[in-house]
Amino acid sequence: MLDFTSEIVDAVVAACEAGAQEAAEGFRRALGTKIALSVGEAGSIDMGALPEDLSGPGLAVVLTVGYSGALVLLPDATGLVPDWCADPDPTGQSKLDTLAQELGMLLLPEEFTPEDFKAGRAKNLTGAMRRGGVGDGANFVPLDLSAEGKQGTAYVVWPVPKPAAVLGSASAKPEPAPEPTPQPAAQPAATPTPAAGPATPTPAAGPTRTAPKTSSRLRDLPVYTRSLLRIQVPIVVTLAEKRQPLGRIVELGPGSIIQFEKSCEEMLELGVGDHLIATGEAVKVGDKFGLRITSIKLPEERFLAVKSAGKR
Description:
By secondary structure, the chain is α+β, with helices and mostly antiparallel strands. Helices cover about 25% and strands about 25% of the residues. It is globular, with a radius of gyration of 26 Å.
């Protein structure tokens, strides 16, 4: 796997410059303000001498890449963060999540496309960086923003060793402490089985918790079942469908318009093979088309009649 380190500074700067215009559009759609964006000169972070605007609240976009990640920080001091970001309703949170997804695709090199993304307001951006494990020598690229007489700077920061902790509250900080707790619990379990001496090292080596990304339910599946999950299948989004006489279809040519009964505001259908699995709404991710899933179609329930043993 590629390392998300200081060696990719030039690649990040190039990605930011290439995606600057689309990123500005993403900010506009999410924050409701037309924004001009230009990329500044990259540098390294000194946690003891951070810009003053990072010592206050702001919007934090967390982009997870493998076991590390990156941040896009927009301080409240810029005047560009709307008040609703402090407590967004579902629509507002959806806007922030879409912004996070767009920025992840536009401001990072293609080979570092985020596997997970989220956005939220942090009461103190410096504290959010510290929770994420950002230290001296980390890298940043400043994004100079201006809108309607307001000017400020957003920051792309990496690497972030603990991206999941960035938006956690102070109470979430002790959560890493419970991780050592299962280890002592495993040692007493090994004590009652001293007779099986060779078996004791096996559980000790068993902390396969090093792969937190893998669902425990998937790890419990048989090997042959897990291998099926690697099979690639086509995913199709159906905008609309219609039946027409073959004669009408033969007459189609460039410029022809086919009218469908489906409204443009209706949900789109997501299918795998010939099976409908979900519905969702169309979204724009940079200059690409995407689908935000709103509901999952549950498998059909099947009932079998229960017959008494005496009847045939």
